[in-house]
Every structure is written in C-alpha cells, then in structure tokens.
Amino acid sequence: MPIFRDIEFIKTLLKAKKAGDKCVTRNITTADFFADCVKKHGDAECLVFEGASWTFNQVDAESDRMAQWGLSVGLEKANTVALVMENCPTFLFVCLGMAKIGVTVALINYNLVGKPLAFSMEQTGCRLAIFDASTSKTMTDFSAAGSSLPLHFVSSHKDAVPSFATQLDPTAHEAQPVDASVRTGITVTDTLFHIFTSGTTGLPKAARINHLKACLSGFTMFSFQRVRPRTRCSAGDRVYVTLPLYHSSAMLIGVFGCLSFGIPLCLRRKFSASNFFEDCRKVDATVVLYIGELCRYLNATPPTATDRKHRVRLAIGNGMRPDVWAKFQQRFGVRTIGEFYASTEGNANLINNANKMGAIGYVSPLIAKKYPVKIVKFDVESESVVRDESGRCVPVAPGEAGELIGYINNKDVTRRFDGYSDRAATEKKILKDVMMEGDMYFRTGDLVRQDKEGFVYFVDRIGDTFRWKGENVSTAEVSEVVASSPGVTQANVYGVQVGDIEGRAGMASIVAEEGFSLEALYERCAADLPKYAAPLFVRQQAELEMTGTFKNRKVNLVEEGFDPSKVADALFFRDDAKKQFVKLDAALYERIVSGEMKL
Fold first, then answer.
1. What is the pTM of this model?
2. What are phi and psi of 2, to 5 degrees?
3. Cα 530 to chain centroid, rounded
4. 301 in a structural domain
5. Res 66 pLDDT > 60
6. Per residue in 368-400, pLDDT tens?
7. Does the residue 318 lie in any domain?
8. In 195-270, which ranges are continuous DSSP H helix?
9. Distance in angstroms (rounded) separating the CA atoms of residues 28 and 25
10. Helices assigned H by DSSP within 264-417
C-alpha cells in the first residue's frame, strides 16, 4: 500500500511538523504548491469542462489574471472573499488566484438563501463576494435584503452586469505572475478556505482549512486509493467530479488530488444521475468521486445497455451504504470502491482501500494503541462519553459502538484542529482528559464500531441514534432495511416524540415507486428489525429534502412529526394487532398521543 509518492514539494511540506519550526514560518503555501505542479506538468491537460480543455500552464495564467484583479481592488493578504458560484473553471481560477496573494476564500453553498446565506457571509468576515450568472438571482435577493457587502459579478461582455454589482472582467487584467513577496508571512498553517458543514441540523458552520491540509488531502487520498499519477510513461487516471466545489470532497480531494498527481480534473457544473456515466464515456474518466446518496440516485436510474460501457475502475468517496454498494458495483462494473471517513474540519480520518464492503476505514490491531484515532464508549441516553473511576474515557470492545475521536496536537501541523470561525462551536468539538490528563481529542459526533480484523463501520450520527422502549435505535441501520423494501427508492429515518412517553418512536419518511406496497414494507421491517427498532410511523413524500451534498435533512421532519394537521403527505401507523400499516388520520392521532392506543 503506497503511503507517499516521491514528490519533493510534498516532502518539503511534511518537514513542517511543529508550529515553531523555521520551515513553517517560511513562505510555503498553496501558491508554491501549485507553482510546483505547473513546473512539472505545464503543457499537460489539467482541466476539462463542457467540451473545453485547459493545460496546467493555461490554468496558471487564468489564476494570475484573478490575482491581478484582487490586487487592483485592494485585497491584501489575510483578507477573506466569498465565492458563490456553480462548478465552472472560473471557480478554480478564483481560488488559485486568491492563494497567490494570500487571500482566504469562503466557499459558499450556492443553494443557500436568506438568513443562512447572510450568516455564512458574516461569520467569515468577508470583504467582498464574487458571483456569476449562475447565482445572479440568489445574489439579487441578497442585495435587496439590505446587504452592504461589495458584490463583484464575473463576466466578460456576454452577460449584463446587475445594477447592484461591479463587473469583474478577468480579460481586463494581464496574466502576469504575482511576486511572492505579496504573500510574505502567510504560512502552511494559515487559513486557505472556509468550507462549511452541511447544515443538516442547523445553520452551517465555517471550518477553517489551512494550506497544508488542502495540499495534502487529495495527495494522500489518491495515494492510498491507488490513483495513477501522470508519469513520463503514462498519462495517468482521469477524474470525473460532479460534486459541488464548495464541498471538501470535490475541492480538497478532487481538485488538489488532480493537481498533485498531474492528471485531468473532468468537471461538471451539477450532478445529473441520467448523464453521469455518459459523461464519463465522453471525457474518458477512469476515477469518479461520490458522497452520500449520489450512488443510490445512480442505482435508481433505468437500466440501459450502456451501463458498463465506460472505463471507470475506481469510485472514491464516503457515505455509501451497504445496500447501495453491491448493486452499484454489480450494475455498473466499477471494480473498486474507495470508501473513506473524514470531516471537513476534523482530524479523525480513516481509509478503506481493501474494497471491503460497508467499511469506512481500517486500523490494524497491531498499531491501534499508537494510532491517533480512537473509539470510546458513548451513552446514547445522556449523549455523553463514558468515563471510568479515574475520569478517563473507556475504549470499546470489538463490535461495540462508540464515538470516533481524533487526537489533537496543535504543535504538529498534521494533527491540528483549527476549528470554526465560531469559538464556542470549536470548544464543543474538543474532548479533554481522554487517555491522560491534559490531552485533547476532536469529537466527530459519529458512532462507529470496529470488527476483530480492524475494519471500521459507520453506525449513526450522535443525536440521530435515539432510545425507544429502553433500547438504542440506529437511524442509519433502520434506513438500510426500509430502503431495501420493494419499491422504496429513498428512506430517511428519525425519532419523534409521542405524547408524554419516554424516548422517541421511529418514523420513516420514504419516496416510493411502482412496486411499493405497505404490506411488503411491514413484512420487511418485521423480518429484519427488532420490534422496538421498526418504524412506528411512515410518511410518504414525493421527494426528500437534501443538502447540497446529498445528505438528508431531518430538522423539519422531526418538528412536524406524525401530526396530520401539520403534514400534507400521506401518513401511516404500524398497527401490530392488524400486522399492517394503516392510514393515520386525526382521530387515530388523538388516540395515540392521548395514550388510548397502546404502543
């Protein structure tokens, strides 16, 4: 298994082990990393988008234009700008151009509107925002709401510049390299990006991504997952990215992995399930990135004779559930799934490069004691870690679920936790006095379990796991069973309050197609789930509400619960006396919440 390939610049970065080392104080940043990539791969293909192609030299030149624009409007090192844009080459030119002048970029989810959008801008202290025609409507509304933030519209002369914005015409600036002195003082531990959490349970939080993490993330992931770099003898792999560039998987793994390996990034503006593998054929992709439910969407497309007519050999990502995994590989012929576990802001990272179905990573039992990632016992009812008599956290036994945590050492740039722009949110993610007095670990907020071989499996998000009838219920595990019922294409499971009864009852919101029946769903749940875990309520929706990174939102569903007066969708109740799901109306609802109906 390769750990690091012989790339001298990466070796230079890795010498910066401690914040006090002289190496860290030198001007070694993403701009220097990219310059090294351009030097090695200059005329090789770097970027592919909508039938056009750019070499490393051309991407370098376009980013120089953006850097010159930044200087022309008075941007200085350590300033922050917001970028609100769909996937496109300009997105990358802005990011690389700002890196050349030491400016931080806040990668804003272009799906945000109203308060969440304003909140994202405010918490990162942006001096200005950059957008284009793809997000013009969003920014029009943002401006109309009274924002005084300067807005810059990227356009040459094709698109009309909105009245509230200033034109940013890249062609008006020379592709002149920026002198490195402009970013003097910026180091590998300074913030390159603000990348936001998905906001599945509230407003997004801005995670700080430093230069070193950006430069190493894709390089390390591609190395472990055996992506083929460009060499004198081989053109290497071609990577297809349809995930949004404001997300860490697309940016840190996709973009920076391709740059460091000297291979093309084949970019699509937005994900399309029906065009996914057709695109892969067109750009001759050999590697794809996925996240969350993306592969479930691909499985749900109608089968075609061309499902396997592509060269994709490897899919890298996280969040592929076991019920999706086997079907995806069998149908589309993708030989290897490179599942991993990581969070945008965290340091508890795991990789499964053994194609082990369902596993999110692997930690050899031989090195477990020294490995900086641990799994500790967690009490779901009190939502707190379990400590022994001496106040230390308790490691789990094989097969036992616990919270995944990562050791923090801010003197080691590879073990840092830079946190969020919100200091209080940062403190909540730090667990202290774990194995010894004074140590600190990053809390992932995820429950996992490890088998005796060392493979690690996701169980659930803390807070998503709930208690019913005195038992812990994993929403992720219940979702797998519900989604495997005939005709169910998507399932989102959560716990809801039932009157004054202790705990929360399981409820499943589903999307169904032809072939679905409540009878089959009841039978599947009865056969594969203990009674306490089987959903007591079912809500049938036309579509599930998702984040921009294909994660289910639950906040509104939990608030609405199973009350017919709040829910317009069809609702059903699991009546075990009748051994079926029955329609849930106002009268039955009152019987349930009053306690007349025994659960």
1. 0.80
2. -70, 140
3. 31
4. no
5. yes
6. 888 899 999 998 777 789 999 999 999 999 999
7. no
8. 211-224, 248, 256-261
9. 8
10. 276-283, 294-300, 322-332
